[in-house]
Amino acid sequence: MLNRRSMLMGTAALGSGASLLSSVNAAHAADTSPIAVGAVLPMTGAAAADGVEFQNGLTMAIEEINAMGGVLGRPLELHVEDSSAMNAEIVSQAMQRLIDKYETPVIVNGYNFGTGMIEMDVAADNDIIFIHYNTLISHNTKFKSDPARYYGSFQGDPPEYYYGPGLLTYLNGLIDSGQWAPENKTIALVTSSAEYSIVIANAVRDQAKDYGWDVTLYETVGFPNNQWGPTLAKLRQEPPAVIAVTHFLPQDLAAFMTQFIPQPTNSLIYMQYGPSLPAFKDIGGDAVEGVLYSTVVGCLPDDYSEAFRATYRDKFGPNAAYLTGSQTYDGLWKWALSAAIAGGPGAPYEKEQMQKVAATMNMLVYRGVNGICNFDPDGQSATCYPAQTSDASLGMPHQFLQHQDLTTDPVLISPPAYAKGSFKLPPWMS
């Protein structure tokens, strides 16, 4: 398995004082022109907090890669377009501008929702590499419809579909291990109108009975939404064992908790993604203690990522969300290694070279700060551990975390191969 350290910093592996990239750079020193790296990020609007972190991750990766000589002696140069409302027209036009103006061979986005994955068509029409973290099964579906056309499009994390069976498996594990004894096995699902949220809620709903659970409520709210009174009234009328909120904006989820706590039910609360961001705790305060959440991508609290986490917060501030910045950081590192191995990044419309870079990206099992990025050839998204593979060395971990001590970061409680603590019963539950 290849990783950033062994490829770029591993002097012991090479038996000399130079890294692999430095050695290859020396052989390609003739061309020192910058390589444009494009990114279409929500720098304004409802998801601006994430957009800033996605840009931070790219900035940090570029500084590190350039310090090692760039890609085959060529430095990377970042160009960002604001996706703001994140619809198909805005995102596709922004990507095309980056290609036309800077001839960027690669675009690394965080997430942009509401696009219908039109980004993949832009990448295909221009023969560039496109990496994103939309976390959508629709990426996999579109890739499967025409793999030859969409060869250059990669989803850097597993799709949201795997949140469904992952949650049900985790809940049953809590019961089987004696960590939690619910009065019944009922789940209330609260989703927003966003595609990401709906797919997760539907995955839980459609498989619940197979895992021994009953869904007692399926509630859809607007996007965004911070007025939870009507939904909470329904939840309090028939309290479930689990309230699963698949809406994901941190400020909205914090509002849910501040409105829930004055009259709580005896229910575990599971939320999607938003609790990983500082805004969730900043806005929710003590009300968020005990909340469970999970993510199929996020910086691991392990020894491998320790230097990244420290450097990220030193560089961008003590409250910077490295869990988000780590995504684009890893994506760009994997592309840079692949481009170097393939003999160069190529340029728009250079299909033969782009296919070489894409083939290398599929071959490279990359250990980054988010865990393993090993692309599933059937969908060209990162393989999910343990839902798609039982081998932790071949899949990106589906992480379950809990807000326990609000003076520190959330505690990673599953999967066991990565866990740093154990589940605690939330303070509002008897």
TrEMBL record:
Leucine-binding protein domain residues: 34-387
Transmembrane segments: none
SUPFAM superfamilies linked to this entry: Periplasmic binding protein-like I
Signal sequence, renumbered to the chain: 1-29
Keyword rRNA processing: no
Lineage top rank: taxon: Bacteria
PROSITE patterns the record matches: TAT
Entry keyword set: Amino-acid transport, Signal, Transport
Record-linked PANTHER family: LEUCINE-SPECIFIC-BINDING PROTEIN (PTHR30483), PERIPLASMIC BINDING PROTEIN OF ABC TRANSPORTER FOR NATURAL AMINO ACIDS (PTHR30483:SF6)
Protein family: Belongs to the leucine-binding protein family.
Name of the featured protein: ABC transporter substrate-binding protein
Source species of the chain: Pseudodonghicola flavimaris
Organism classification: Bacteria, Pseudomonadati, Pseudomonadota, Alphaproteobacteria, Rhodobacterales
